[in-house]
Write a structure and sequence with these properties.
Shape of chain A: globular
Low-confidence stretches of chain B: none
Oligomer: heterodimer
Distance between the termini of chain A: 40 Å
Number of strands of chain A: 11
Helix content of chain A: under 10%
Strand content of chain B: 35-45%
Distance between the termini of chain B: 36 Å
Mean pLDDT of chain A: 95
Mean pLDDT of chain B: 93
Number of helices of chain A: 0
Order of helices and strands of chain B: EEEEEEEEEEE
Strand content of chain A: over 45%
Largest sheet of chain A: 6 strands, mixed
Shape of chain B: globular
């Protein structure tokens, strides 16, 4: 079956760095997305990786290893507004997105 | 630009009643999707549409139907609601299906409670 695994919840301190991991098993693979979702709101796009390596976008970076079925989202210089759920999603061979349950990130001052 | 709008924002529905959740996008995106989001589970695809006039079944289509008469609108109908359909429903759109990297844009969601 197809599956996305990511931690349920993480806690970090304002100003620190946090890494949210995601492992995936899909029938075929056509790229991996990270979305941010604040409580009660819609998911919003953060990043897309299809090739191995690190993609940096401001305070957020995303890494992909296709051979390991693994990705992570790295958040630097954490701010209180980064408190949200972070959703990992992978495109399968039919370009259907398979979603993880999300990682709730709690930022403490 | 509004992006994607959904209506209603929330609804309480008696079991057995029918209801249509509305979704409209103004980005001229070809592909549209309906998801449900339940606590502890990832977003699950109900139905999708690659382009106006075509629809397809997602992971959890039973009890739901959709239509795509034009590019902008993608309504989701519950013919006879059951309590297990209590959820938050998100409509989304993307420029296309089948080309990697096309992010999906989400509407604000409809919170549905079936009693």
């Amino acid at each position: 079956g197809q599956n996305i695994d990511q931690p349920t919840e993480m806690t970090a301190t304002e100003g620190a760095i946090v890494q949210i991991n995601c492992t995936y098993q899909t029938s075929g693979f056509n790229g991996l997305f990270w979305y941010q979702q604040h409580a009660g709101e819609a998911p919003t796009f953060l990043s897309y990786n299809v090739l191995d390596g690190l993609e940096e976008k401001g305070r957020f970076s995303s890494f992909l290893s296709r051979s390991k079925g693994y990705s992570y989202l790295l958040l630097k210089e954490l701010q209180m507004k980064d408190s949200a759920s972070y959703l990992c999603a992978a495109f399968d061979s039919n370009y259907q997105l398979i979603w993880g349950a999300g990682t709730k990130l709690i930022i403490k001052p | 630009t509004a992006g994607i709008t959904q209506a209603p924002t929330s609804q309480i529905l008696a079991a057995g009643r029918s209801m249509t959740l509305r979704c409209t996008q103004d980005m001229r995106h070809n592909a549209m999707y309906w998801y449900r989001q339940d606590l502890g589970l990832g977003l699950r695809l109900i139905h999708y549409s690659n382009t106006a006039g075509t629809t397809g079944k997602g992971e959890v289509p039973d009890g739901y139907s959709v239509s795509r008469a034009n590019t902008d609108d993608f309504p989701l109908t519950l013919a006879s609601a059951v309590p297990s359909q209590t959820s938050v429903y998100f409509c989304a759109s993307s420029d296309s299906i089948g080309a990697g990297g096309h992010e999906q844009f989400f509407g604000p969601g409809t919170r549905l409670t079936v009693l």
